[in-house]
Write a structure and sequence with these properties.
Layout (H helix, E strand, L loop, with lengths): L7 E2 L2 H4 L11 E7 L14 H10 L4 E3 L5 E3 L2 E8 L2 E6 L13 H12 L14 E8 L2 E6 L6 H7 L6 H14 L7 E7 L3 E6 L14 E7 L3 H7 L4 E2 L1 H6 L21
Parallel strand pairs: 1-12, 2-11, 2-12
Antiparallel strand pairs: 3-4, 5-6, 6-8, 7-8, 9-10, 10-11
Length: 266
Amino acid sequence: MKRTVTVLVVAAFMLSASLQAWAQPKGTLKVGMEAETYSMDPLAAWMGYGMVMMRQIYDTPIDFGPNGELNPRLATSWQQLDDLTWRFHLRKGVKFHNGYPLTAEDVKFSIERILDPANKCRHRGRYLTFEKVNVIDDYTFDIKTKTPDALVPNRMAFFTRVVPKKWVEENGIDGLRKHAMGTGPFKFVSWKRKDRLILEANLHDRAGLSDADPAVAVQVHRRPGGLAGAQRRRRDLVAPQFLARLGVDLRDAAVLVRHPDEGQGR
């Protein structure tokens, strides 16, 4: 006999396509997850759930579209100058959540963090063709490779989440581990390990980048506490892996979108 579950089912890969697509109702969106990241530093948040959360806070120069195509993000365009050189042009007017302007120095700093063996980045192997990053001006940079690499744009879309060089120098890596600072559609508010991560919509001018609804905040809760707990605590989204372990056939799961104004005690 088929069962219907009145919670919104969202796969991790769908959520990673950015919560901004779901952020039309005003209020607070509560997401139940079975695991969490252990750092707000995108370099350390390399596992699935960490990458999902970092995508909401940080941007990459290029973005993967729903069909795997490459779309402009922080970079508006890119081209291959020669066999070993790729040039990228950044979007002007983008700001980090604290108001610092995005520049090519921030991208260079972020890439060099990946390349530095001392940082032990789990995805460093994907960038071993990179030799160096040359800043041409505030909004232009080149990536020089050791050998011809046609996948440089793909690599810039995968794990190159840009952090503000100046802010990290002021607050240290330990500060970044505890307090995320990006340019993404949602900005960091607070984080309590093994409990919840709270984000709110980024109200800065994002210079043409798609935005979240300015009235939407997101709370990501670790471990909904069972299906009954997910309903009792009024989660709006629950990761489907969690429901699958409870024996729920996801093909039979109904979708319920509850407007935040409906009901009390959220």
